[in-house]
Design brief:
Largest interface: A-B, 40 and 41 residues
Radius of gyration of chain A: 19 Å
Mean pLDDT of chain A: 85
Strand content of chain A: under 5%
Largest sheet of chain A: 2 strands, antiparallel
Oligomer: heterodimer
Helix content of chain B: over 70%
Low-confidence stretches of chain A: none
Radius of gyration of chain B: 21 Å
Shape of chain B: globular
Chain lengths: 288, 354
């Protein structure tokens, strides 16, 4: 019984982590059809922002929940103005340029902080179920995933801002004739996507080793989750994250973590072969 | 007349290239020649992606899957047979078979652009993860120990065909590698000038129109993919021959990214461009590696961003355009002659005539 509970917690952890890590990419992809291959490096920047401000004496919660998203959101804003805005509508070029950007960011961070591993201690304690250990941080991550989902849904569905964003997503030309400035919407969407990614980076900082190259571990998974989820940013990403997160954890439980990953990748390939428009292209058409 | 002139010019260039490959060992030092051997092996890999991306319109993010499979196929069979002759053949056949299976899955499922990128990327990651976890004595194929993260050291290098005792000297290795590069280049150039190559370009230009003309785009893309996989596999064998070592990093994403950078820098839609881009970038990376001031990621990333934004055509097409502008008179006739042929054929001719 205790074992099942622990496995269930692991699955929950995998799903919520994957969802948090993908949400920023999904917002950018869903709104602007731009694949940001520097996504992993945005996560890395968020983690570095957390670690460095926490080590400088800032409260860990403030470092994670405030400093990381603000910093990465600002970086995203600058990058959108200098680079991304020239690439709207050029999918392949945007992928190449953001790939270059990711190498550039890795290079800059390596030059400044060196190729060494950093970390912060995990806040909150642990608890035990039977003879197994787990940490409250796992539950906190799941809570954050739910909170972020509710926040994005609420903003997109019930506010004027969300209405403008959805209108621009559906038909930029029509939105422009109604007085919306699509350039500004794209700019703020990219910054918001980057901030959400930075938050995810801050949240994984206590549970992972932080190196300049850490983004590489996330970008492929985030990329395939978002594409596998399809155009709907919330329902698509949530369903794909649930599927892949569960496959990963259950696979890792029955075999080894390595084959858990391999199983996820295989699942992604089969999914895209069966549903070339992603999960939401088939099941949640028109949803958020 | 212009056609015959261009044929003569091309023949002269080929003869010059053969002479250059032949005399290089006498002109430069051993270290520089070894470096050139590596660049030539990488340039073969660049050509494999240049062909499917530039002419077939298929952007694979996982060309290193075939490169790595070729490398491992060569290493495993070379350790087992102690003879490179069948190993080189296997290094071409196994990636080609893998490309056939994967390509069937992709193209007959009508998967394109981003989705194709995701699949090729994840396949590479699967191979990396699997090979990376094969450390331990139980993972062996015949006599070959896979070695997991540490890779396979001391792989037998090329020998004279069917004479396993006569191992090639570094000079001979260079001749083989440089010759393979020239051979692949000429093969692709020849293919692109044949009707088959024009069909490949036609499918890239407009799939619907090509299929209305009676060609099956799925089959054309699949065959293109298989050929490119075979070439990448050969490049893998050449690479392992250079270093006598193969490890799982051969499947890494950073190498996949590097191939795409070579082509973007050199020029998409040409064959010469990727070779130039490959040698240039690899030279820069090697140079940066030898000093401490700059990080190679930083430079590579900056180069890629600058090229996508400011010089999206790449070096070779830009240089060609400049040359065309400088000498417009003799080219005018050729252009007139080309206007007689159908657009897609003209496009392939133009693209192949860098």
């Amino acid at each position: 019984m205790a074992l099942y509970l622990i496995v269930a917690l692991d699955v929950l952890n995998g799903i919520s982590l994957l969802f948090l890590l993908c949400l920023g990419l999904a917002i950018i992809f869903g709104m602007m059809k731009i694949i940001n291959l520097a996504h992993g490096e945005f996560i890395m920047l968020g983690a570095y922002a957390t670690v460095i401000s926490a080590n400088a004496g800032v409260n860990i919660w403030i470092a994670m929940l405030v400093v990381a998203p603000l910093f990465v959101g600002l970086v995203g804003l600058i990058i959108e103005r200098c680079l991304i805005r020239f690439l709207y509508g050029r999918l392949v070029d945007s992928m190449l340029a953001t790939w270059g950007l990711s190498l550039l960011i890795i290079g800059i961070v390596t030059t400044i902080y060196g190729n060494t591993q950093q970390g912060v201690p995990t806040p909150l304690g642990g608890f035990s179920i039977g003879s197994y250990q787990s940490s409250y941080y796992t539950l906190f991550l799941a809570g954050m995933a739910i909170a972020m989902m509710a926040l994005v849904y609420g903003v997109m569905r019930y506010t004027r801002l969300g209405l403008i964003a959805r209108a621009t997503m559906q038909n930029p030309a029509m939105a422009a004739t109604l007085g919306v400035n699509p350039t500004r919407v794209y700019m703020s969407t990219f910054a918001v996507g980057a901030a959400v990614t930075g938050l995810a980076g801050g949240l994984v900082a206590p549970v992972s080793g932080i190196t300049p190259g850490m983004g590489g571990a996330y970008v492929a998974k985030a990329f395939m989750t978002v594409v596998g989820g399809g155009a709907a940013m919330l329902s698509g990403t949530m369903s794909a994250a649930s599927l892949f997160g569960a496959v990963n954890q259950v696979g890792a439980y029955f075999t080894t973590p390595v084959y858990g990953e391999v199983l996820v990748f295989t699942a992604a390939i089969v999914l895209i072969r069966l549903l070339p428009q992603g999960i939401s292209g088939r099941f949640f058409k028109g949803n958020l | 007349m212009p056609v015959r002139f261009s044929l003569v010019a091309q023949a002269v260039v080929v003869v010059l290239a053969i002479v250059a490959i032949a005399v290089i060992p006498n002109v430069i030092e051993l270290f520089a020649m070894m470096q050139l051997t590596l660049f030539a092996a990488m340039a073969v890999l660049a050509l494999s992606l240049a062909f499917i991306w530039g002419f077939g319109g298929i952007l694979s993010f996982g060309q290193t899957a075939f490169f790595g499979l070729g490398g491992y196929a060569y290493a495993i069979s070379a350790v087992n047979f102690q003879d490179s002759t069948p190993s080189i053949l296997l290094a071409i056949i196994i990636p080609a078979l893998f490309a056939a299976i994967l390509g069937y899955f992709i193209f007959f499922g009508r998967i394109s652009d981003v989705y194709l990128g995701v699949i090729t990327l994840t396949v590479t990651l699967i191979l990396f993860n699997c090979v990376n976890s094969t450390s331990g004595d139980e993972y062996r194929i015949g006599k070959a120990l896979l070695g997991g993260f540490n890779g396979m050291p001391a792989v037998p290098t090329f020998n004279v065909p069917f004479y396993p005792d006569q191992v090639l000297s570094p000079e001979q290795s260079w001749w083989v590698t440089g010759g393979a590069l020239l051979g692949v280049f000429l093969l692709l150039r020849l293919l692109l000038s044949l009707p088959a190559g024009r069909i490949v370009v036609a499918v890239r230009e407009n799939e619907v129109r090509a299929s209305l003309l009676g060609y099956d785009p799925r089959k054309v893309k699949l065959l293109t993919f298989i050929l490119s996989g075979a070439i990448a596999g050969l490049a893998g064998a050449l690479y392992v021959n250079w270093g006598a070592f193969v490890g799982p990093t051969i499947f890494s994403l950073s190498l996949s990214a590097e191939i795409i950078i070579w082509i973007t820098v050199g020029g998409l839609g040409t064959l010469l461009g990727p070779v130039v881009g490959c040698v240039l970038i690899e030279y820069i990376v090697a140079y940066i590696g030898s000093q401490q001031a700059l990080n190679s990621n930083l430079v590579l990333g900056a180069v890629l961003v600058v090229f996508v934004l400011l010089l999206p055509k790449g070096l070779v097409p830009t240089a060609r355009d400049l040359l065309m502008r400088l000498v417009p008179a003799p080219k005018a006739k050729e252009q007139l002659a080309e206007e007689q042929v159908p657009p897609s054929a003209a496009a392939s001719h133009m693209a192949g005539a860098e």
